[in-house]
Amino acid sequence: MKKISLLLLTVFIVFSCTDNKKANSKALVEGNNTETSEVVWHTNLEQAIVIAEKENKQILLQFSGSDWCHWCKRLNEEVLETKEFENYAQDNMVLVNLDYPKSIPQTDKVKEYNQKMLQKYGVRGFPTVLLLDKTGKVVKQTGFVAGGPSKYIKHIKDAYASK
Question: How many other C-beta atoms can be found within 10 angstroms of the C-beta atom of residue 162?
């Protein structure tokens, strides 16, 4: 019985710690990845910080209501899911998406973690985007910026340049 419990715990940990692509309604429903992009969206900030420090990259942390938030959907469609942004991010950023859906199932563990992060950063609306340095320190809090990927990339670069 102990061996079975240990095996199940190990499997659970492996799957819960595995990075997934963009964790929104288009990309991920309980492990069903439907995107083909090379860009990886992490779902655990602590793991992303380790990667960012190792690769000397900044972090973009998105708090999203992927299946109900109009501005979240616009940010994803007009910026974050574009090839231009993905190319920039792949070379410069570690991406993290914490999703707060209404109809997309999530495990209790994911819900608890996301709620903890929501409280930690005092997020009150969606989308909230935190630009973090490689150690996880907040550089800027932002959200949707109209104008497409070029304008959003400039917005990000300006935020890091002014720190």
Answer: 8
